[in-house]
Design brief:
The complex is a heterodimer of chains A (about 110) and B (about 110). By secondary structure, chain A is an all-beta fold. Helix content of chain A is about 0%, strand content about 55%. Chain A has no helices and eleven strands. In chain A, a hairpin with a 2-residue loop joins strand 5 and strand 6. Chain B has about 110 residues and is an all-beta fold. Chain B contains no helices and twelve strands. In chain B, the strands form three sheets. In chain B, strands 2, 5, 6, 10, 11 and 12 form a six-stranded mixed beta sheet that branches. Chain B has a four-stranded antiparallel beta sheet with strand order 3-9-8-7, with no helix packed on it. Chain B has a two-stranded antiparallel sheet with strand order 1-4. In chain B, about 40% of the residues are buried. The chains are: A mainly beta (about 110), B mainly beta (about 110).
Chain lengths: ~110, ~110
Amino acid sequence: KAGVTQTPRYLIKTRGQQVTLSCSPISGHRSVSWYQQTPGQGLQFLFEYFSETQRNKGNFPGRFSGRQFSNSRSEMNVSTLELGDSALYLCASSLGRKNTGELFFGEGSRLTVL
Amino acid sequence: GDSVTQMEGPVTLSEEAFLTINCTYTATGYPSLFWYVQYPGEGLQLLLKATKADDKGSNKGFEATYRKETTSFHLEKGSVQVSDSAVYFCALAAGGTSYGKLTFGQGTILTVHP
C-alpha cells in the first residue's frame, strides 16, 4: 500500500513569490491535514480537509490556503512568501474518523525562501 | 488553548539503558494522547496511543500510561537500541469535530550510542 506522497520534496523560492504543494493521501483515506515544522516553533497545525471541505484551521495568516479534491488529493498554497515561511511542510492522511489522532505522514516538502 | 510540554533534549544514552521522556499536557475535556517518532530521513510515524485515563499504550518495547491526575503521558523503554535514535513527539487530539488536528510537543531528540 503506497504511503502519503508529497511533491515537490524540495523547493527554493524568493520573497514575494507564491508556492503550491501537493499531497496524495493513502488510498481510501478521506481526511488530509497539513502541518508546518520549524526548529523554533516545532510542529504547528495549518488546516485539515474532509470531503473537500476545510474542517479546521490553525493560527496562520490568510496567505496560507488549501483545498481538497474529489479524489482526496490536497494542495496547499502560500502566497507572498516571507523568509519566515521557510519550513518543512508535512501532509498527513487518515481514514476520516473523528479524533482518532492516527495520522499517516508524508516525508514533507522542504521550502526555502531566500 | 491545548498545549503539550516535553522534556528538553537532546537525550543521549548508551545501548541497553533505560529511557524516560516526560510529557505533560493541558487540554479541556478528555483528549487522546499519542507518541509519534520521526526517524532520520523519514516521516512521522505513530508509535503508540492511549484514549482514556489509565490506558497504557505500548509498541516496540515502548510504553506510556495516560495519567489524568498528573496530566502526563511519559514515554518509557527498558532497554534502548541504537535503532531507537530518532525524534520523539508527544501529541494530543482534543475532543470535538477534528479529523486530523493534533497539538504536538516540541520534540525530544534521542541519540543512542553502542
